[in-house]
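Demo today. Your pick:
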Amino acid sequence: MNEQDGTQEAGVSSLDCYIQNVSMVKTTPSKKRYFNCTLQAKDDPVKAVCYSPDKHSELQTVAKTRSPIKLQNFKKTDSSKDIVITKFTKITPLSKADVGFSFEENMTVKSADAVVNISSITKLAPEQLISNNVE
């Protein structure tokens, strides 16, 4: 586990998926650039954050063409199954015959609206965006 950024190496060596919902590149208050997307894996959709803006156009292209890819050398956050894509993550195009599932329209991540307790905030990825509701 990387104590500095709250991530650990992925337990799986690779992930075959489709990319959806690629956001615009955003900048954190500490000037880190990133973007978000949804990975449509075989079982469930997974949220992903990419801290390598150079990969934005590549991921946007595979999202528009609905082409499957293989992700390798990514990280997973400790607190969830969210994926962190870094400059070291390898993106390999796949043929649709290489994956055992097809593209699904408007895939959303069910955990996007999950409630996180204040005490759990320290387990989130650094600079991960959250919304809060105060009662």
Q: What stands out?
A: The first strand starts at residue 7 and ends at 9. DSSP finds one helix and nine strands in the chain.
